[in-house]
Design brief:
two-stranded antiparallel sheet; 295 residues; 13 helices; single chain
Length: 295
């Protein structure tokens, strides 16, 4: 194994492999279950003295229970290793909050935290779009899915019974049943997708960029107006300023500041100043023309 979770148990160092699920399950299954007395002692050591080694032993001895719980969620199509990992997070949260003075075993207390983390993971990853966001919808999601595995599509009477049992309305049961039966739709279907899937793709409902004739006419008019305004603005410039802009920006082979400076017998800085002044006049003329056309 490339890495391992190491913890002390009964005075020995135990390595739990990480990266190979089968090896991991075999390793955690071989860790002895703590007696009630040992569990209570370790819990008090962690709670009173913040003994992290005691916390590791509590976590290590309960990893087998996480695997057992995670296997109950295999039907959701998610990797067992990911489910176990999320359940382990719930176990660590439970160990942190466990109070040995209550008089219950850690496993009884930790079940809630383990399941809660796995539930959140399933809801986040079962579909691209969340199927349950409220507390009632989450409860309905897991209970209804189990019921449908036994009953298939629910009849009206079964729907009312499920709604009454879970404290929701029949409409909410029907809505969740439809969500469970639905499937994710790809925004860009695969090349071998059938015609029905291609037609139903949301991409087919996006408007084409040239779909509106009015927008095409308006864009063409704006481009024509901009071209005319540019020609008029250039004509209003003095001959030197117009020549500098044409040589610097409009010619295929653009001239450098040094070349123009040598041609006009001035410094390169002076050419840059003349260019900046001409550009300022050009922008002002184009801005005024655009405002007048928009009005």
């Amino acid at each position: 194994m490339s890495s391992a979770l190491v913890a002390r148990h009964d005075g020995m160092m135990l390595a739990v492999p990480v990266g190979n699920l089968d090896a991991y399950i075999n390793a955690v299954s071989s860790v002895p279950v703590l007696s009630a007395e040992d569990e209570t002692e370790l819990a008090w050591r962690f709670r009173r003295d913040n003994d992290l080694d005691a916390a590791r032993q509590l976590v290590l001895s309960h990893l087998r229970f996480v695997v057992h719980i995670a296997r109950g969620y295999n039907g959701y199509g998610l990797p067992l290793g990911d489910l176990v990992q999320e359940g382990n997070i719930g176990l660590m949260k439970a160990v942190k909050r466990f109070d040995p003075s209550v008089g219950v075993r850690l496993v009884s207390f930790a079940v809630h935290w383990i399941r809660a983390e796995i539930h959140e993971f399933v809801l986040r990853n079962w579909r691209l779009v969340k199927v349950a966001t409220t507390k009632a919808q989450r409860k309905l999601f897991f209970n209804l899915r189990k019921a449908k595995q036994r009953l298939g599509w629910l009849s009206a009477e079964e729907t009312r019974a499920v709604a009454e049992d879970l404290g929701v309305t029949p409409a909410e049961v029907n809505e969740m049943e439809q969500r469970l039966a639905a499937r994710d739709m790809a925004l860009d279907p695969a090349p071998d997708a059938d015609d029905e899937e291609r037609i139903g793709s949301p991409a087919h409902f996006l408007p084409a960029p040239d779909a509106d004739p009015a927008e095409l006419v308006a864009r063409d008019d704006w481009e024509d107006n901009a071209t005319e305004a540019l020609g008029a603005a250039l004509a209003d410039l003095d001959e030197r300023g117009r020549a500098i802009l044409q040589r610097r920006w409009l010619s295929e082979q653009k001239a450098t500041l040094q070349e123009l400076a040598a041609e006009y017998g001035v410094s390169a800085e002076r050419i840059r100043q003349l260019e900046a002044a001409a550009m300022k006049k050009l922008r002002a003329a184009l801005a005024g023309s655009s405002a007048a056309w928009s009005a």
